[in-house]
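Q: Got a minute? One more chain.
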Amino acid sequence: MTTFIEVDTLKNYIAGNWEEADKTTAVMNPATGEEIVQVPLSNQEQVNKAVAAAKQAQRKWALVPAPQRAEVLYRMGNLMKENKERLSRILTMENGKVLEEARGEVQEGIDMAFYMAGEGRRLFGQTTPAELKDKFAISQRCPVGVVGIITPWNFPIAIATWKSFPAIVAGNAVIWKPATETPLMAYELAKIFAEAGLPDGVLNVVFGSGSVVGDAMVHHDDIRVISFTGSNDTGRQIAAKCGQQLKKVSLEMGGKNAVIVMDDADLELAAEGIIWSAFGTSGQRCTACSRVIVHENVKAKLEERLLEKMKHLTIGNGLDETIKVGPIINEAGLNKIKRYVEIGKEEGATLLAGGEVWQGELGGNFFSPTLFTDATPTMRISQEEIFGPVVSLIPVKSFAEAIEVNNGVSYGLSSSIFTKDVNRVFQAQRDLDTGIVYVNAGTTGAEIHLPFGGTKGTGNGHRDSGVQALDVFTEWKAVYIDYSGKLQRAQIDIE
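A: Always. Here it is, folded:
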């Protein structure tokens, strides 16, 4: 038991109380293989209890003026700042990402708290001229009611704050199912919410599996929104089930992101951006670079730079400040990466570096940063999300071909181009079919005041983060106030 963690077994957080579940399972440190804590495996009954508490609390919460709701988020941000280092170390222990990345993620949650708190004084609708005399017309945002958020293990604070903060400032109550691999962040955030003064029942945390807790949330009549980040297969199932119930659903489901390197690019800068985007978080990001679309004239030079930089990537426990690449979350993730490396070799791509499990002294799940070259756009390693430290170089002959290759996958989350040609920059930002586009930077590094999400198989059109996140957790209401003292029949009575 580490000094950063104060409990042996977690409990669900329902209506302001910590409640035990009948079953639990172990949470393992992916860098060491050691047990950190036991997490509940909850059931339908506990979901029902949380929803009942949320439904009751939401009625009162919606009546609290939005600027007062925002005060809770301001306090959340300050409390998270005070606990930033402790939260970062816990995050690294349960998730594995290196400490500097964990600190960055906690900071993202802090930034989101202050940003969404500001929306408590905005939540803007529209005032518009009415088409008849003595009539006033407005639109306004209204809370949906009870919302369900289902979050992944790879960004257990950032994504949770992207979803919960806008939902709460908009006047909703939240049921949160965090990933069972990283439950401690949910436990810590629930405690901070309580300390910040959030009324009991407005946030409820129910731990458990997606097949039980997640499914119960999706099918519950009183949960009117499901916001999910995770795999494409699971997202499709959620969308189908929610569609049958006419329930709003927001999906963010990954990517097959590419960095385009043109023949006029700053190759040193491009190599730095690729290394960070491909191997940060051990490639376990939905925005990770897994394809490099490189002009054939500079392919050899770029390979040299990448191979040289990869020699300096240290692998190990993320709590060690000298480590740059942490572990894979679990053995299943490790085995998936191994399978894709074999697929790449079988397809005919050339393995330049890595491609094997890293055997250290820690006993955790590590995979060596891996570089393929001479991949083709249609290979599986060029089309399918691997979710590990594996990147493939795809040579192209022109800018037009690079755009075509970038767009030729089923995902559409993030893309990047390195070039010094301003004309290409403007063409790329127009023609790349992803929800996020970077110029002379890698594919990662979203900022909280801009919308996060993508096109095609990445999602269903909604966005996390930014003011656009409010669209997921609010309904629009049109209000017409007629002070003419007589019946006016809209278009019928227009002279």
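A: Residues 257-439 form a domain with the Aldehyde Dehydrogenase; Chain A, domain 2 fold (CATH 3.40.309.10).
Q: Perfect, thanks.
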